Every structure is written in C-alpha cells, then in structure tokens.
Amino acid sequence: MNKTELSIGGLYSIDNGDGSFGIAKILALDETAVHIRLYKNKFSSRPQTIEPDTLSLGGISSGESFGIGHMPLSQEGFANWQPVFISQSPVTEEELVGYNLWKEDSGGIWQ
C-alpha cells in the first residue's frame, strides 16, 4: 500500500491480529506517517460498511477496550494491519487536536 492509495478521512477496517477486526480513520498523511484515530469497536469478521456515528474511542475507566484519538504510524506499520477502505468521513477539528499537539512537539512515529 502506498500513500496515494490512502485517503484523509478514510475509514478502514484493520486486522487486529487476534482474529478480530477494528476501524481506523486517517486524520492526516505526511512523508513519514499515517496519522490515524483508532476506534474501540471490534468485529468478528471484516466489516464491509460502517456507520460513523456508531464508532467510539471509549474510555480507560470503563474497564472495556478503548481507542486512541491520535496515533502516528509508519506507512509500513499501517500496511501491516491490512487496511481495507470502507468509506469516507470528514475530519473534524476535534479529531485533529492530538495530531496538532504531536505536530507542535515534533513527535515520533510508531513503526
């Protein structure tokens, strides 16, 4: 998967590596990273469609699984999750808060 195949605002199903599938949204792309929002929602089979309103980050205190508001991931790392495009969704200013903080601090990326 190369950068031209990725879409800002794209919702992708990803292979969690444990027999379940999750959902990631691309918030931004740059030369080194795919910046994603990783939702807590898990599925037993790869979803073909998704209603964005059903996606949640959850919370650590809930005792359930939780998502990540911003995760800078190498393009290779993201490709290893076998992402499959589902649909397009606008990226909101609220979703970009973590990304903007990362950018201000010149943060690193996950491999």
Structure description:
With 111 residues, this protein is of the alpha+beta class. It has one domain. It has helices spanning 75-80, 97-104; strands at residues 10-15, 21-29, 33-38, 68-74, 84-88. Strand 2 (21-29) and strand 3 form a beta hairpin. The protein is globular and about 35 Å long. The two termini are 15 Å apart. The mean pLDDT is 88.
**Radius of gyration over alpha carbons?**
13 Å
- Average pLDDT, rounded to a whole number, is 88
Please give the number of β-strands: 5
- The secondary-structure element order is EEEEHEH
Distance from first to last alpha carbon: 15 Å
What fraction of the residues are assigned to beta strands by DSSP? 25-35%
When the domains are counted, the total is 1
Q: How many H/I helices? A: 2
Major sheet details: 5 strands, antiparallel
Decide which structural class fits the backbone. Answer: alpha+beta
